[in-house]
Write a structure and sequence with these properties.
The protein is mainly alpha-helical. Helices cover 69% and strands 10% of the residues. It has 2 domains: 216 residues, Cation efflux protein transmembrane domain (Alpha-lytic protease prodomain-like, Up-down Bundle); 82 residues, Alpha-Beta Plaits, CATH 3.30.70.1350.
Amino acid sequence: MSASGGTKAIIAALGANLAIAVAKFVAFLFTGSSSMLAESIHSVADSGNQALLLLGGKRAQRSRTKEHPFGYGRERYFYAFVVAVVLFTIGAVFSIYEGIHKIGDPHAIESPAWAFGVLIFAIIAEAFSFRTAIKESNEHRGSQSWVAFVRRSKSPELPVVLLEDLGALLGLIFALFGVTMAVITGDGVWDGIGTLMIGVLLAIIAIILAIETKSLLLGEGASPEVETQIRTALESAPEVARVIHMRTLHLGPEELLVAAKIAVDHDDTAAEIARGIDEAEQRIRAAVPIARVIYLEPDLDKAAAR
């Protein structure tokens, strides 16, 4: 996985979630809190998700084969989609079920000090992980808003880790709210409410991730800014009169396919056209380094001829 894949952020999140999962489960054993159990499952699911992202990044580096002539770069999109499914099925569905069950059959919180201590520890650890994800994302976000970055990023790992860490922090706050209200009021229903809130939150995040990664799986083109750079590079070649039409497709986060029909002068020889195409490809790669697969089809400039 390249640096833009957010490996550092993934590893930071994985380490934090493994430690937090153990702490939360210990707290559940001492308190019997459904919020703590839901958060334990949430952290286990997140740990599995980060392992899937690392696996996807590793498999995407395989060399192209006869069966897959464009390589395996889009495996990173597949594993990001699997993360969304795992987050929903394991995290959200379990938490919603547990919350409804606890509301229907509430129990008092035992040894609440354990729950408060673990939740505070978990918030600190998740905040560190979230800070790492934000720092890495800022290196690639540019002037985009956070919403635009999540929606337009062609590298799925950072948006996934960002949303997971945000969901983890909010989930911890919901768990703290549920446990605190259950201890203050002596009513275990609040613990169930906190658990239900965690489940709904995870479902929302999972749906957002599924929608965004589905779009990447289906195949997204380059951003308008990148397409403009490619068009400018093409039309700056002396032998290229204009771009008749162009299509782009991300074969992976760092690999772009460019296919274009270009207009050439009807007086140009075959050698001049071939030389012009070679120069145009060089200009594209200089302007957009991720444009690694380029197909240019020459055609007569009929508009100029008329």
